[in-house]
Amino acid sequence: MKIQLRVNGPRGDEKIVDLCQNEEDLKRITVLMLKERITRELKIGDDIRMVYRTKTLEESSLLLSYGVKHMSIIHTLLMLPGGMMG
Predict the structure, then answer these.
(1) N or C: lower Cβ tally within 10 Å for the chain?
(2) Under a CB-based contact definition with an 8 Å cutoff, are residues 3 and 21 in contact?
(3) pLDDT tens, 49-64?
(4) pTM more than 0.90
């Protein structure tokens, strides 16, 4: 069974993204791999943050560690430049 995710883009668009072919493949997919696929499919820059449920996804982590599964919804947010006030 093909594993797909629903991705809410930073501009409010929603897209179904083909992630991998099966559950075994899902065990090896990192957040960074998903980020690369999302930025390519949505044609957006890589300066995004991804959120699943209420957790910000860390690039070095496996998707499975967050409980991501077939048809999970991933939200993307643009990271805007800014600085700290001192």
Answers:
(1) C
(2) yes
(3) 999 999 999 999 999 9
(4) no
Which pLDDT tens digit goes with each residue over 29-44? 999 999 999 999 988 8
Work out the number of other CB atoms within 10 angstroms of the CB of residue 64.
14
Structure-block tokens of residue 49: 């943050």
Q: Whose structure tokens read 């072919």?
A: 21
Answer CATH for 3-78 from 3.40.50.2000, 3.10.20.90, 3.20.20.140, 3.90.870.40? 3.10.20.90
- Contact of 6 with 74, CB cutoff 8 Å: yes
Which residues make Cβ contacts (< 8 Å) with residue 53, sequence separation at least 6?
66, 67
Question: What are the extents of the domains in the chain?
Answer: 3-78
Q: How far is CA 79 from CA 21, 29, 43, 49, 56, in A?
A: 30, 23, 15, 7, 13
